[in-house]
Request: fold
Amino acid sequence: MFSVSQNKYLVHDHAALDRNGSANLKMSVARNVGAFLTCLLLGGGSAVHCASASAEMSRLERVLSNNELRACIWPEYYSITYRNPKTRELSGIDIAITQDLAKELGVKLRYVDSNFSQLFEALEQNRCDIATHAVGITQERLGKLQFSQPYLRSGIFAVTTRNPGSVQTWDELDRPGRVVAVAAGTLMEGVMQQTLKNAKLLRVQAPATREQEVQSGRADAFMTDYPYSLRMIDLTDWARVIPAPSALPSTDYAYAFAKGDASLIQRVDVYLTSIKKNGQLLQFAKQNKLEPIVVLK
Reply:
């Protein structure tokens, strides 16, 4: 757990907002909790009935009241929210950011393992307050989720092997007989559905991995983004990484939230604006080799 109460990264433009907002939130939380307890003490009904006294609590108020921010992560996401299989330690830009955000909010931090195929359900079923694994903003996801301002922007990369006869260039991918793998639920799935005309698209569901499909020969390549391509370069000796042509658009990455109340999004946006201005986001990006894709404005 991570619990430090000091507020370090506030921009001058938002200082008054943060001060007054925090005070108002604490008063509101106290009122809601007080109403719930009073209802119980005066015999106003069951705990379920009395819970209506605090039902109007916003998402941000609930985080502060529970003294806990629950952040969904994908532990396979190198440079983002990666769990080292040997040490079990987490690292990546979103680990650094969420730890710092929890400090600023003055709450504990709890990570909830998830992945992109579980993204919508994890938020809608209230398993986490925020999805913090560099979620690409797509039209499909915009219909189901809310997003913070973007902080990363990545293009697409193909990963194949160094074996003789393997794919050498991007132009060799979309040919009859080729198989291109994508992780189910990732933005790569939608992009490749629209892009591929001749190759077969293989959707890989956990616990299977795209790497297994390529190494076994069942797929010729798999699609990924800049952060995950770093994993292949840093941790393997068999992978060849091929960037997509510039004609293919890049995707903005942000934090995702369930539809509805926007109080937590607004607070996260205040925080992201501040770390963009004070250089903290750039520092986090450099520490995780993500400087080429960081969004600072």
Remarks:
- The longest strand covers residues 251-258.
- The radius of gyration is 22 Å.
